[in-house]
Amino acid sequence: MDATAKRPSAALAAIGTVLERVCGAVAVIGGVALLGMIVVSVISIFGRSILPGLAGFVGLEFRAASIPGDVELVQIGTGVAVFAFLPFCQLRRGNVLVDFFTSGAPLRVRAGLDLVGNLIFTALAGLIAWRLVAGLQDKIAYNDTTMVLRLPEAYPFAFGVACAWLLAIVCAYTVWRSAEEIRTDRPIGPQDVAEH
Q1: Residue 193 pLDDT > 50, yes or no?
Q2: Can you give the chain as a three-state secondary structure string?
Q3: Transmembrane residues, as ranges (predicted)?
Q4: I want to staple 77 with a disulfide (CB 3.0 to 4.6 A). Which of 37, 107, 109, 141 is the partner?
Q5: Residue 158 in contact with residue 132, Cβ under 8 Å?
Q6: What's the pLDDT tens digit per position in 62-98?
Q7: Where are the domains of the chain?
């Protein structure tokens, strides 16, 4: 096998770079949602529990207060964060693997096992994304809103659908990446198959 055959394709590298940037940006959105949930939770807990206690300690009377709809905001933020992190996690090989039996196996064997897992995950991610589209259509048709704040549920749901389709694309890319690792017998990606 000559040296050019052992190199991954330029198309794989270019698509990997684009996916890395897109998934990284989406993961940042998930991180911002996570920080927002922390702020909402801290303010609500402080207003509901700590502030009345401190006021009572110094002889003042303070009625407990929290952010209205704080539970709804945290639920929405959780959905946004989870869906935002999934594509980045898959791209970076961050999913849980049990490599106890395969840690000493040759790279092609590990890449072959990754290929099978990535194929299965691609099919599941596509199925989930497809069904989420149907759920989004229902959210829009029935104009579903949250109970307390009456926020439309379709907007965060649409973000989740977009992230689910991004995950399906990333999964298809990881199938290609695993096939290239088998073909070239070389690790490819931000964290190669030999490190997981």
Answers
A1: no
A2: CCCHHHCCCHHHHHHHHHHHHHHHHHHHHHHHHHHHHHHHHHHHHHHHHHHHHHHHHCCCCCCCCCCCCHHHHHHHHHHHHHHHHHHHHHHCCCCCCCCCCCCCCCHHHHHHHHHHHHHHHHHHHHHHHHHHHHHHHHHHHHCCECCCCCCECHHHHHHHHHHHHHHHHHHHHHHHHHHHHHHHCCCCCCCCHHHC
A3: 21-46, 73-91, 112-134, 154-176
A4: 37
A5: no
A6: 666 778 899 999 999 999 999 999 999 999 998 877 6
A7: 8-92+104-188
